[in-house]
Amino acid sequence: MSAYHYPQQYGRHSPVFSRATLLRHSGGVALLISAPASIVGHRSLHIGDTAAQTRETLANIEALLAEANRVARGARFELGTLAFKVYVRRPADLPVIKAELAAVLGAGTKVIYLQADICRQDLLVEIEAAGMCP
């Protein structure tokens, strides 16, 4: 669900952000993914379960990759070729998040971890990603 269409329970005005964007330039296509979390539709999922929230967030990123590959014909964005910035609410959850990401992404993926507030109180992790395709 587009954040532009969130119900009023999230505020008087809908959020104004895009989940992802493609930037075409002479060297190819860049994909910028804007910190999805464990949200499906407009609802937070897996409250209190850091591992499940991390997996749901990765599933949301994979859905964005599929759409980017559809829209940017010829592009082949893949999860393992992206660079990631991971926002972690509670430092104690870092080992769980790292383990979930390692299981999916492998060892060679570029990942930066930051302790930060996250858009909703019930969310424990958000993940930004970026990648390029020639």
Q: Kindly state the mean pLDDT as a whole number?
A: 91
**Domain tally:** 1
| H and E string | EEEEHEHEE
Please report the first level of CATH classification, the CATH class.
Answer: Alpha Beta
Query: What fraction of the residues are assigned to beta strands by DSSP?
Result: 25-35%
Distance between the termini: 29 Å
Globally, the shape reads globular
Main pleated sheet: 5 strands, mixed
- Specify the structural class: alpha+beta
Q: Helical segment tally?
A: 2
Task: Find the CATH topology.
Answer: 60s Ribosomal Protein L30, Chain: A
Number-wise, the strands total 7
CATH architecture group name: 2-Layer Sandwich
Radius of gyration: 15 Å
Report the helical percentage. Answer: 25-40%
In short:
The chain is α+β, with helices and mostly antiparallel strands. It contains 2 helices and 7 strands, in the order ββββαβαββ.
Describe the overall structure.
There is one protein chain. It is globular, with a radius of gyration of 15 Å. The strands form two sheets. A five-stranded mixed beta sheet has the order 1-2-7-5-6, covered by helices on one side. A two-stranded antiparallel sheet has the order 3-4. It has helices at 50-71, 94-105, and strands at 20-25, 28-33, 39-40, 43-44, 83-88, 110-115, 125-133. It contains two helices and seven strands. It is α+β, with helices and mostly antiparallel strands and 134 residues long. It has a single domain, classed as 2-Layer Sandwich (60s Ribosomal Protein L30, Chain: A).
